[in-house]
## 1
Amino acid sequence: MNMSPKKKADMDAKWQKVAAKAVTQEDFKQKLLKDTLGVMKEFGLEIPEKARVSVTVDKEINIGLPDDCDEALKEEVTWWRWRIAAIKEFGHELKKSSEDVAPMSEEGI
């Protein structure tokens, strides 16, 4: 059995609010990068209890599956992995944009 369409739609709607806020509010993006799971929980998104979650010292979030998981759990964990990768990308974007900013020469003005 796959994740119900209603549950997926609910998770997607909540994610859209997180993502929109992250791309429009720098302070929120920083908070999301520092406390990804906490912020997601504030928006009503929690990793399923049966999934195994580990967070490394450098804030890398890993989500594992139990041996006896069903398709719905696999699908939900995949959803989470994609969203966590997107959040991580927000951080790379931030680093890249601050590193790529070069002083403009008079010719470019």
## 2
Amino acid sequence: MTAVGLVGCGFVADLYMRSFALYPDIAVAAAHDSDGDRLSAFAAHWSVPGHGDFDAFLAALPPDAIILNLTNPDAHFTVNKACLEAGRHVWCEKPLAMTLDEAQALKTLADDAGLMLASAPASVLGEAAQVLLREIRNGTAGQVRLIYAELDDGFIPQAPYRDWVSESGAPWPAEDEFHVGCTLEHAGYYLTWLIAAFGPVRRVVAASAELLPDKPGGNGTPDFSVATLFFHGGEVARLTCSITAPHDHRIRVIGDKGVLTVKEAWNNAAPVQFHKRLRLRRRLLEMPIGRRCRVTGPTHPQVSRKGAAAMNFALGPAEMLNALAEGRTCRMSNDFALHLTEVTLAIQNAGDGTGPLDMVTTCEKPEPMSWAR
């Protein structure tokens, strides 16, 4: 039996708990939150020990337990630092920190202590992403030239978000979400896939803007961004994030032979399809009905849809625990977390005049999951 501890018992913590229910060999040993009422409600709903004191929380964890930092993003640096200084491996909800200097300091602290520091999201370890990555490696679409990735969520300020409540009664943190912004919250869902497919980003050319200044908690935070990402291998990707444009979570990988598509970033079981390119009389087109690309055999535990997502949030922590048990490098490495953070912050902070930015961090491509080789 392996164990995790949770810091932060808000909306996203319930999504992790739903996922951990699929892993009988992982126990949630303790939870901590500075809000006593929220901690009590969460601990009672999920039958986990709750500790209002952080030191008592640390003391309640088994020596080999990892800590999940599920606090508000503005607290990520402080909580990550405290956990690392306590000698604990850390899985952090996105973003790793709110500035690159803070993220670099955390990574240095983790490296010096021989600790793992990983950042959400973990959907890159899920079935849809891993199948797509396998097809890219196998050359199904031929040489990849261009990738279009969309993370548009619809006109969220007009959505009934005040009615969105988690299983243990936590409201969707609207003001915090709007304050942090859709780029920091969502860009990682496809950035992780792109970095895993093509390696680190060499250069970012991006723009971002606040289009909805009247939303709660906005304070100038961009609610739209678009980035062109240049990879060392020559591939180019365009990534768009917004809470204004109609909902669209597609990724299209365009190669010499056709197009690989996934229509739902937040569904681990979303179909991966290949649309072959062909000439028909005097026309050039991709087949409108794609060929489904599949994995034979079991992949990972699947979570039923809850709200907008059908994602197994435990994939990242489970990978960390497996890496510890097997004495190997974690696929979600410290370098990967830092590079993901740098690229995301470059897009978020681009504004309308930043221009090209060369990335200063790098990372290795994570190994594919054993069932997706």
## 3
Amino acid sequence: MKIVTYNLRFGGSGKAHWKTVLEEIDPEIFLVQETFHPDEHLPPVMHGDLARNAVWKPVPGLPWGSAIFVKGANPRPLDLPAEFEGWVVGCEVDSVSGFPGPQDHPLRLFSVHTPTPKKDSPKKDSYQTAVTKILDMISRFKGEGDIVIGGDFNIIVSERHGADSQQIYDVEQRNKSADGRIRFRLGDEFGLMNCWKTANPDLPLAPTYGKTTHLDGIFVSKSWGVRLSSCSVLSGDSWEGFSDHSPVVATFG
């Protein structure tokens, strides 16, 4: 099973992103941010009703938003609060091909894009504040089964090279940074592992935005760790022309 997360940038200029990802990577789960409606990327005349396998919500006032595509399934959208409409979308599916988790509860998926704080917002507003609020919201909608959270978090979502992502944090370490507290919360409260850091524990962070910044990630249940084969950030000329972000791909055997 493969999971991909990808911020397309302003809806996906050229509208070739979905087709390229689905044909070249062939993921079972595709978490998408800053995307036009799936029908615009997968027009029915060329792709049949493939877009029915996706849920999508636009950011109010903008032509793009967040989406989730599940191969061979009809995802049921979750009715999330309006505060992050179009920035966060969630859905529920009964099964996914190759799903490594238990089958007794539906799987819930969340595609996350942390919004930029408004220029006139209070100084206390930040990306970290928004991510915290998004996780508060997801915690109320995660259900009883496994969950997957992925997307463009606009914070450093992986621990830097040399940090042991499996260690137990003491209080001082938990509070070392706002980003660190969020990473700890994903692991402690939600029981999730960071796919990229788990698969690449001794490597420097791979840039997912521009040439230097690691903002995008995929988080899944820690119990899936034994099935995680790899997690990579796709780069190179074939991807740089599509977006200022790079796709992150987690593969489970």
